[in-house]
Amino acid sequence: MRAEGGGRRAAFALVIGLSCAASVAQVRRPSVLRPLKPLRSALPPVLARAIQASAKLRFAGRRTVTVLRDGQPRRHEEIVMRDGPRTRVEFPADGDYAGQVIVENAAERRHFLPAANEVRVLPPRREEGIQRLRALAKQGRVATAPGDRVAGVATIEVTVADAAGNPLQRLAIDPVSGMLLRRRLYDATGVEIGGFVYTRIDLAPAPFDPALFRIDRKGVQTTTPWDTLRRLAKSGDYQAVGLAESTGYRLDGVRIARGPLLLQQYVGPNNRRLFLYQLRNAVDSAQLQKRAARLHSLSWSSGDLTFVLLGPQDDATLARLKESVGRQP
Amino acid sequence: MNVDLESGAQRQAAEWVRDLSPEEPSLAWRSALNERVRAEAARRTRRRRTWLFASPFAGLATATAFALLVFMPTKPAKAPASVGHVEANLVALYEESVRTDDIVGSGPRPWEAPATPDVPSDPALDLEAL
Predict the structure, then answer these.
(1) What is the pLDDT of residue A13?
(2) Helix, strand or coil for residue A278?
(3) Taking CB atoms and an 8 Å limit, are A111 and B100 in contact across chains?
(4) 3-state DSSP call for residue A259?
(5) In the 3-class helix/strand/coil scheme, how is chain A assigned residue by residue?
(6) Which residue in the set A67, A95, A287 is minimally distant from B100, CB to CB?
(7) Is B86 on the interface with A (CB under 8 A)?
(8) What pLDDT is stored for residue A83 in this prediction?
(9) pLDDT tops 80 at residue B69
(10) Which positions in chain B touch A72 (Cβ < 8 Å)?
(11) Which residue does chain A place closest to B86, by CA atoms?
């Protein structure tokens, strides 16, 4: 009993002591009001739902993807299976992508090309497009309206426009699951430049076999974008140099683009894009800055080549990254 | 004129001419000369044959050198900065790539795999109809 009474007294003393300490802390708090945090631009609930759900959805569906190239719409179909962070994409047997398989998880993406018996290992991409919506919505205007039925699912249409009201994207979202069922993109003149639409969707599929999200094939040639870089650099007389992965930027794609020039595409922290170009033209930094509104650039010469870093990163980051451009092992 | 011919100086000169011993080329000298002529003829013949053999090659070499001079690819000098075209292309490529990634998402980028022709049987997303 006595011990119990002592414990109660000790607890009472502790409560009193904490209360006094809290009072003192309250007194020491500056009397001026702290500035309020700036209000976050409110996303429409359905868009916020889509962004949140993108990494957690489970579904199996079929979609048509359209990309406008040289003024002509090019379409292909995909069979998509998603289980949270894992994705598998297959292609119908009657298309040019027949036999190709893409599997992706949070760490990497593997693209199997049967004709070359090759598996390309790349950084994952799935989250980039949907996450960029958040930035787009913050920069411009967002409006919602009742949408049509897409793949049999009632949707809400979200229009993301620039500050002047020109539509940039139109999205059809299932408000229940947050599934993005249709996406259309527009250029500066309002012309649709591509998009995708699900034609079939099962939002509660049977459990997936884990093997669906792996590519196990013996004798296959495994390559990375660095192999592509070395091959293209050799054939086009460019330099096989790029950003080391220790910088936090992963090489996501390499190609010869119009110019001609060698284009390296990187994905960095927070899925931020960064491009490294090699070309045989002089580049005017002022002109480049004038044309890239929200981008930064840094250019330099090496031999007969001009190198250009272009991305949303600040100038100090670009300068640091430039120093790390070197030959890869 | 006869007076001049009969002058002392003329007579003296005539005596000197008479006193000169007749000189004929010796056989040894003639033989040496013949040897030299033959050697010279042989050298000329050899030179002519060598030139006949080498002249096509010399012509070919000259033509090759000329062709190389005219057609040899020279390293192009760095093109001067155009009025913003190069820079505009860099920015356009960046924006196109980002937009394409928004469209294709987890699918392949158009330049990563063989292009697919239009799928007329599925008008689910008909750009022209919009």
Answers:
(1) 54
(2) strand
(3) no
(4) coil
(5) CHHHHHHHHHHHHHHHHHHHHHHHHHHHCCCCCCCCCCCCCCCCHHHHHHHHHCCCCEEEEEEEEEEEECCEEEEEEEEEEEECCEEEEECCCCCCCCCCEEEECCCCEEEEEHHHCEEEEECCCHHHHHHHHHHHHHHCEEEEEEEEEECCEEEEEEEEECCCCCEEEEEEECCCCCCEEEEEEECCCCCEEEEEEEEEEECCCCCCCHHHHCCCCCCCEEECHHHHHHHHHHHHCCCCEEECHHHCCEEEEEEEECCCEEEEEEECHHHCEEEEEEECECCCHHHHHHHCCCCEEEEEEECCEEEEEEECCCHHHHHHHHHCEEECC
(6) A67
(7) yes
(8) 96
(9) no
(10) 118
(11) A283
Fill in the DSSP letter of residue A190.
Answer: S
Strand partners, A275: A265, A310
Kindly state the average pLDDT of the residues A151-171. Answer: 93
CB A100 within 8 A of CB A114: yes
A249, pLDDT greater than 90: yes
Mutation site for B-interface testing, chosen from A287, A294, A300 by largest number of B Cβ within 10 Å: A287
Beta-sheet pairing, A221-223 with A118-122: parallel
- pLDDT tens digit sequence for B77-89: 555 555 789 999 9
The rounded Cα A59 to chain-centroid distance in angstroms is 20
Q: Which residues of B35-52 are buried (b: 16+ CB within 10 A; e: fewer)?
A: eeeeeeeeeeeeeeeeee
Higher-scoring residue by pLDDT: B83, B101: B101
The complex scores an ipTM of 0.81
pLDDT value of position B4: 66
**Domains recognised in chain A with CATH numbers:** 45-202 (2.50.20.10), 224-327 (3.30.200.100)
Stretch A296-301: mean pLDDT: 94
- Mean of the pLDDT values across residues A149-153? 97
The band of A233, judged by pLDDT with boundaries at 50, 70 and 90, is very high
Residue of A317, A254, A59 lying closest to A174 (CA atoms): A59
Q: pLDDT, tens digit, for every residue of A196-221?
A: 999 999 999 999 999 999 998 999 99
Contact A287 B84 (CB under 8 A): yes
What are B18's two structure tokens?
A: 């008479």
Q: How does pLDDT run across A2-27, given as a tens digit for each residue?
A: 444 455 565 555 545 544 444 444 43
User: Which residues face B32 on adjacent strands?
Assistant: none
Among A311, A305, A71, A232, CA closest to B97: A311
Distances (CA, A) of A113 to A98, A213, A284: 9, 16, 40
Do B110 and A140 contact (CB within 8 A), yes or no?
A: no
pLDDT for res A54: 86
